[in-house]
Amino acid sequence: MTTTADRLNQLLAQVDSPSLTPEQSEKFTAYLTLLQRWNARTNLTAIRDEEGILSRHFVESILCARALPVEIVSLLDFGSGAGFPGLPIAIIRNEISVTLAESQNKKATFLREAARVLNLPTKVHSARAEQLTQTYNGITLRAVDNMEQAIPAAIKLLSPNGWLALMTTQEEIPSIQTQTKETPILWQPEIPLPKNTNRILLLGKNSNSQLSNPTH
User: Fold this and answer.
1) CA 202, CA 113: separation in Å to the nearest integer?
2) Whose CA is closest to 183, among 168, 164, 202?
3) CA-wise closest residue to 138 among 199, 86, 190
4) Which residues contact 23 (CB under 8 A, 6 or more apart)?
5) Which among 214, 63, 47, 194 has a CA at the least distance from the CA of 140?
6) pLDDT tens-digit readout, 45-103
7) Comparing C-alpha atoms, which of 208, 167, 170, 169 is closest to residue 186?
8) Does the first or last residue of the chain, that is N or C, have fewer Cβ atoms within 10 Å of its Cβ?
9) CA 6 to CA 8: how far, in whole Å?
10) DSSP 170
């Protein structure tokens, strides 16, 4: 019988990404079980079937985690929802200090439980990310409501030379570039998530070295 870990590694192999370690596989299996149990009674994610969660949520978040620049040591998952991509980043890149910002109480409660079950040192900020005062040298956004407002708010929390990581689609690139044309973000070539789809990871580096907020 094919296990959850086997299937996830098969999907990663299909997109030329390395297999998970046994410890990582165990955590993703526990994450899936917890997510499906909570999803049965509260709306954490619209994708509820196992294959969909593995291929869309897990694989794409793992690809994002592996593509993040090595200099990122503190990361904010802005509008984390059910933990994507923040929790997979914490599993894959355990050298990064991850904070999950989620203003909806039920989702924030789930994130705390997930961090506990998965034994991750992940912090949960159960309010709007805009209320945070510290800065981060990595910020992720995926499927965030009001992306036009979220991107400028995220940039304000980005430290000098920090990285903005947007999980978005090819169609959104012109809009994103228009929204940020007055900001000091240097966009890199988009990274497919995975290949042969319209979903991408868009990385941008904050070139404003005049900001003085400390990075935590």
Assistant:
1) 30
2) 164
3) 86
4) none
5) 63
6) 988 899 999 999 999 999 999 999 999 999 999 999 999 999 999 999 999 999 999 99
7) 208
8) N
9) 6
10) G
- Tokens 């430290």 -> residue: 159
Q: Residue with structure tokens 């619209």?
A: 46
**Contact, 159 vs 197, CB < 8 A?**
no
CB contact at 8 A, 117 and 128 = no
| Residue 143 backbone zone (phi > 0: left; psi -120 to 50: alpha; other: beta) | left
CA nearest to 89, candidates 163, 170, 158, 153: 163
What tokens does 67 get? 């593509």
pTM above 0.85, yes or no: yes
Determine how β-strand 191-192 pairs with β-strand 199-206: antiparallel
Which domains are delineated in the chain?
4-206 (3.40.50.150)
Structure tokens that stand for 145 in this block: 């409501």
